[in-house]
Specification:
single chain; alpha+beta; Beta-lactamase; 3-stranded antiparallel beta sheet; 10 helices; globular; hydrolase; beta-lactamase activity; Class A beta-lactamase-related serine hydrolase
Length: 309
C-alpha cells in the first residue's frame, strides 16, 4: 500500500508540474527594460500590456502582463496546438486530403474563395491559418480539433488559466461578447509561443513542426519590421477594430527572447499604418531589440514604410 501511495503521489505531482509551464525557474526583473516600456506605454489611448522574457538569462519585463486582452488572430496558435494534439493522439492524420464545402465559408479569404468540393491537403490549411491568418481555414481547423471546448481543455491542462477560445464554444458567450474569438494575457501568450519554441508543446517533433509554421509570416509589418530581416523570428499577430496584438520569439545574437504586446479599447480604430496600436507595437519591438542588442547598427531601410500592408 505504501508503495502504491507513493506511486500515485509521484504521478499526481508530475502531472501538476507538467501543467504549470508558466512557473519559470529563477526569473528576475529587468528594471531598465521595464522602465523603458512603462515610458513607451504612457499616454496610450486605450489599454495595453507587454511581457518580455530573455530566454537565455530569464530576465523579465512586464507591464499589465496578467491583464486579459482579446487575442484576435493570435487565437490561431491555441487552435494549432489543439489540432496537433489530435494528430499526436492518432485521431487526425496530418497528411490527409480535405474537401472544402461552401458551408464552411466565413469570409473571402483564400480558403473562403475555394469552389465547393475543392480538395486541399491539411498541412496547407495549417500554413494558411498561421502564415496568412486565413479565418475560414482557421474555423475549419478549430472544428477538426474538437472545437473550442477541447482546445480549452488542452490549454487548462497545460497551465494556461486565462487563454481561451470563445467563438463557437459552448459556455463562452460572455467571453466572446467581451473579448471576441479568443482571450489571453501577454504573459500566457508569450509563454505559449516559448513552449513551442522550446519543444515542450505536445512533443518535440510536433513543437518543431508548429514552430516552422510560425516562422513563415506574411503579416510582418509591425513587431517583425523592427527586427533585422536576417534574424530568425517566429510570430503570430492579431487585429480587430479596438485591439492590436503580436507575440513573437526573436533569435537575437546575444540570446533569444520572447515578447507579447496586446491592446484593447483603443480610441483609434483605423486600419492604417499610423493606427496608434500599430505604432506602439513597432515602438515597443524596437525598444526591446535595441535593449538586448545595444551595439546593433541596423535600422529599417529608408522607404521601407512604403511597403506596409
Amino acid at each position: 500500500m505504501k508503495k502504491l501511495y507513493y506511486t500515485i503521489l509521484f504521478a499526481l505531482t508530475a502531472g501538476i508540474l507538467y501543467a504549470q509551464p508558466l512557473a519559470i525557474d529563477k526569473t528576475s526583473v529587468d528594471k531598465k527594460l521595464t522602465a523603458k516600456l512603462e515610458e513607451a506605454l504612457a499616454g496610450f489611448h486605450g489599454e495595453v500590456g507587454v511581457y518580455v522574457r530573455n530566454l537565455k538569462t530569464n530576465r523579465v519585463a512586464a507591464v499589465h502582463a496578467d491583464t486579459i486582452f482579446p487575442t484576435a488572430s493570435m487565437v490561431k496558435v491555441p487552435i494549432m496546438c489543439g489540432l496537433f494534439d489530435k494528430i499526436n493522439k492518432g485521431e487526425i492524420k496530418f497528411d490527409q486530403e480535405l474537401v472544402y464545402r461552401d458551408s464552411l465559408k466565413y469570409d473571402n479569404g483564400v480558403v473562403g474563395s475555394f469552389k465547393d468540393s475543392t480538395k486541399i491537403a491539411l498541412p496547407k490549411i495549417v500554413h494558411l491559418m498561421i502564415s496568412l491568418s486565413d479565418n475560414t481555414g482557421s474555423l475549419w481547423l478549430q472544428a477538426m480539433a474538437g472545437g473550442g471546448a477541447t482546445i480549452n481543455q488542452w490549454l487548462e491542462s497545460n497551465g494556461f488559466a486565462s487563454t481561451r477560445v470563445n467563438s463557437r464554444t459552448p459556455g463562452r458567450k460572455d467571453g466572446q461578447a467581451k473579448y471576441g474569438w479568443g482571450q489571453t494575457t501577454p504573459r500566457e501568450m508569450a509563454e505559449l509561443v516559448a513552449m513551442i519554441r522550446n519543444g515542450k508543446a505536445i512533443s518535440p517533433a510536433i513543437s518543431e513542426r508548429m514552430y516552422r509554421y510560425m516562422g513563415m509570416q506574411f503579416w510582418d509589418g509591425e513587431a517583425i519590421s523592427q527586427i533585422p530581416p536576417y534574424i530568425k523570428t517566429a510570430a503570430k499577430s492579431g487585429a480587430v477594430n479596438q485591439a492590436k496584438s503580436e507575440a513573437l520569439v526573436v533569435h537575437a545574437p546575444h540570446g533569444d527572447y520572447v515578447l507579447c504586446i496586446a491592446t484593447k479599447n483603443q480610441q483609434d480604430q483605423t486600419w492604417q499604418k499610423q493606427n496608434e496600436g500599430y505604432v506602439l507595437i513597432r515602438k515597443v519591438s524596437a525598444i526591446i531589440w535595441n535593449h538586448f542588442e545595444p551595439k546593433s547598427k541596423w535600422k529599417p531601410a529608408e522607404g521601407s514604410d512604403n511597403f506596409w500592408f
